[in-house]
Write a structure and sequence with these properties.
Blueprint lengths: L9 H10 L15 E6 L2 E7 H6 L28 H9 L8 H4 L10 E3 L2 E2 L5 E2 L3 E3 L9 E3 L12 H18 L21 H13 L1
Helix pairs in contact: 5-6
């Protein structure tokens, strides 16, 4: 991320970043010559027109359309006592419900042994955590919480409420793990279908409104 800071405020800005344990570097100055010039020591390694940098690529225009789907009301069914066990087993055996441990264990969540609260918790480390806590400096008691939210089923009703539910879940997991609600940031990650199709792009726009 790049910030434009008045020259007399550079030192103050760098001190602010340092107080938040964020690495920041003064990378250059505005010259007004309309070019982006990068140097390695004294050698110019890049000289690009700012006009080309910002406007050189043609703009892409696409239509986005979203129409609320029609859903019929399905009356609630009753499960017979004799079938309850089989129904419960079927639910717990669903790939959308059952344990994701076999997936999570494949990822390295112990990089530099920095995780204080891990993806699994409990006496046997076999229960899913609400979120994880990472200790960036092992000689410090400070940590930051990483949580997420995933409510894709709401997308069949309205992508807006799907995204809103994701944010709600992520924040609740964050707070439940000890995160400070007044000191947090959200990364909205989109994994979408073919946005050349106007209904797909329309759904993505609906999700963006929630963010």
């Amino acid at each position: 991320m790049v910030f434009a800071v008045p020259e007399m405020k550079v030192k103050e800005a760098l001190e602010l970043f340092e107080s938040e344990d964020v690495e920041a570097t003064d990378i250059g100055t505005f010259t007004g010559d309309g070019s982006l010039i990068l140097r390695w020591h004294d050698e110019i390694v890049c000289d690009v027109s700012m006009e080309f940098l910002h406007d050189g690529m043609p703009k892409v225009w696409r239509d986005a359309v979203w129409k609320a789907p029609e859903h019929r009301v399905v009356p609630a069914g009753r499960v017979k006592r004799d079938d309850a066990g089989n129904v419960l087993k079927a639910i717990l055996g669903s790939w959308n419900v059952c344990s994701k441990e076999w997936v999570v264990r494949q990822y390295d969540h112990e990089v530099q042994a920095g995780s204080a609260i891990k993806p699994f918790t409990g006496p046997l480390r076999d229960g899913p955590s609400d979120a994880c806590a990472i200790v960036p400096k092992l000689d410090s008691d400070d940590a930051f919480v990483v949580s997420n939210g995933l409510s894709v089923m709401y997308g069949d009703v309205d992508p807006y409420w799907m995204a809103m539910s994701n944010i709600d879940e992520a924040l609740r997991n964050y707070v439940a793990t000890g995160g400070d609600i007044d000191h947090c940031a959200i990364l909205d990650n989109f994994s979408w279908g073919n946005c050349n199709k106007e209904d797909r792009l329309g759904a993505a726009v609906r999700a963006c409104y929630a963010c």
